[in-house]
Each structure stands twice: as structure tokens, then as C-alpha cells.
Amino acid sequence: MSGDGFTVDYVALGDLAQQLANLRGEFEQGDDALGPLLGALSHDRLRDKLRDFADNWSDKREGIVERLNQTAAFAQSAADAYRTVDEAYATGFADAASEMGR
Could you tell me the pTM of the whole model? Predict the structure, then answer.
């Protein structure tokens, strides 16, 4: 950040949006991701405890998925807005330089 303004890396911001969307996808797998683990456990009480945890977690998971979705959308919108402004300034400066060169 300089004294006259700030710099936004909108490519990195777009990458962040994609990473959040990917993370959201991991959370959306939900109970399906537990299937192989439940199948591998031979202890009934441990399987029951894991199912109980998954049931309690699913309520919280929905809220996390919703927030990840919102945050990914905000990050992508911000990246798009900064890119649009940056490109508009670049075009404006190029046009001004062209006019001065005539």
C-alpha cells in the first residue's frame, strides 16, 4: 500500500474465491465421506459414536457451507469489480496518451 492508494491483486482474490468454493465442495460431501470410514470400523460403539457426531455436525455444516458460499461470491465479485476498474483506467490512460501524441 502506498501513500496515495492501494493495490489489489484481483487474480489472487479470484483464486481465493475458487479455493473457498472448493472447500465448500468438501463440506457438501457430508455423510457420504464417512461411508468408507464407517465400513472400516469393526467396533459397534465407535461406529455409533461416529454416526452421532456426523448427525450433530450436519446441522453446523449447513451453516458453514452457506457462509463459504457467500464469502466465495463476495471474493469473486470484488475481484471482478477491481479488474473492471483496473481495465477501465488502463483504457482511459491509453486513450489519453494517444490523444496527447496527436
Answer: 0.66
CATH label, 11-94, candidates 1.10.10, 2.30.30, 1.20.120, 1.10.287: 1.10.287
Angle at the Cα of 35 from the Cα atoms of 31 and 41, rounded to 5 degrees: 125
pLDDT band at 16 (very low <50, low <70, confident <90, very high): very high
Higher pLDDT, 82 or 39: 82
| Helix and strand counts by DSSP (H, E) for the chain | 3, 0
What type of residue is 45? R
Which is more confidently placed, 65 or 78?
78
Place of cell 502506498: 2
* Spatial CA neighbour of 47 closest among 57, 39, 55: 39
Task: State phi, psi for 10 to the nearest 5 degrees.
Answer: -70, -20
pLDDT band at 57 (very low <50, low <70, confident <90, very high): confident
Give the containing element (helix H, strand E) for 35.
helix 35-40
